[in-house]
Design brief:
This protein is α/β, with parallel strands linked by helices. Helix content is 26%, strand content 12%. The protein is built from nine helices and seven strands. The strands form two sheets. It has a five-stranded parallel beta sheet, with helices on both faces. The termini are far apart. The model has no long low-confidence stretch (mean pLDDT 96). Bound molecules: iron/sulfur cluster (2 copies) and FE3-S4 cluster.
């Protein structure tokens, strides 16, 4: 209670805002507790009341007053083609804002597949040269929290870890927190016994689908996707894509839009 809340600046590059949509639905911890008691969300141009010069002034203020201490949360990525003109924030290319604010932060949290890998805007032929955040910010730790979007409780869980232990979580070789991305969907999938028994859904709505058989032959990417959906699940732990009857499309994996296609394996 005596510890000052850590300032968080949440920037938005090329993205769809659904990572924010996911974040605000966190139930463990409640997002209201995160925003009101754990962090000081000083800038987020999606949800903040301030606008224009008043809003931009906050960035300079936090940067000067909390040099080396604030966290930079980034949703979306910078497009580097055409001098960055495909994403303009406050009248200049987003990449400039990103570099400027990253210069004095403690660490960068790259929310979602957009910030982590590039996602749909970086899919072939990537007309704007959308570029993952860690390829632009090279001198700060970049914690990747991929998913399109990431699970709400994974997002707030990463923040909670950092605030509780005052360090960044252990990461895998690609920069993802091991506690949420250390296993494949397939490793903990409740349909796994059907996979092991060779019981597959062969076409949509067949007898196997009704019996809840494995979705591998319908293109499920669970065997190659590292994420926490089969353990943490979505919507307050209610379900996840496979439980809803559709295979995993690998939305937290690098270049998932370009890899083979959702319905092939
Ligand atoms: Fe939207 Fe997906 Fe990008 Fe998140 S990762 S901003 S959900 S497109
Ligand atoms: Fe693996 Fe997908 Fe089958 Fe689940 S449904 S057991 S993740 S292949
Ligand atoms: Fe994405 Fe697969 Fe989870 S599609 S939401 S990683 S089950």
């Amino acid at each position: 209670e005596t510890k000052p809340r850590i300032p968080v600046l949440w920037l938005h590059g090329l993205e769809c805002t659904c990572c924010s949509e996911s974040f605000i639905r966190s139930s463990h911890p409640l997002v209201s507790d995160v925003v009101l008691s754990m962090i000081s969300l000083d800038y987020d141009d999606l949800i903040m009341a301030a606008a224009g010069h008043q809003a931009e002034a906050i960035l300079d203020e936090i940067r000067q007053e909390h040099k080396g201490r604030y966290l930079l949360a980034v949703e979306g990525n910078p497009p580097l083609g055409q001098d960055g003109m495909s994403c303009i924030v406050a009248g200049r290319p987003f990449v400039e804002q990103l570099k400027e604010m990253a210069a004095d932060c403690q660490a960068v949290v790259a929310w979602g597949s957009c910030a982590s890998w590039g996602c749909v805007q970086a899919a072939r032929p990537n007309p704007t040269t959308a570029t993952p955040v860690d390829q632009v910010i090279r001198d700060k730790p970049v914690i990747k929290v991929p998913g399109c979007p990431p699970i709400a409780e994974v997002m707030t869980g990463v923040l909670t870890y950092m605030l509780t232990f005052d360090r960044i979580p252990p990461l895998d070789r690609q920069g993802r927190p091991l506690m949420f991305y250390g296993q494949r969907i397939h490793d903990k999938c409740y349909r796994r016994p059907h996979f092991d028994a060779g019981q597959y859904v062969e076409s949509w709505d067949d007898e196997g689908a009704r019996r809840g058989y494995c979705l591998y032959k319908m293109g499920c990417k669970g065997p190659t996707t590292y994420n926490a959906c089969s353990t943490v699940r979505w919507n307050n732990g209610v379900s996840f894509p496979i439980q809803s009857g559709h295979g995993c499309i690998g939305c937290s994996e690098k270049d998932f839009w370009d890899k083979e296609g959702f319905y092939q394996h």
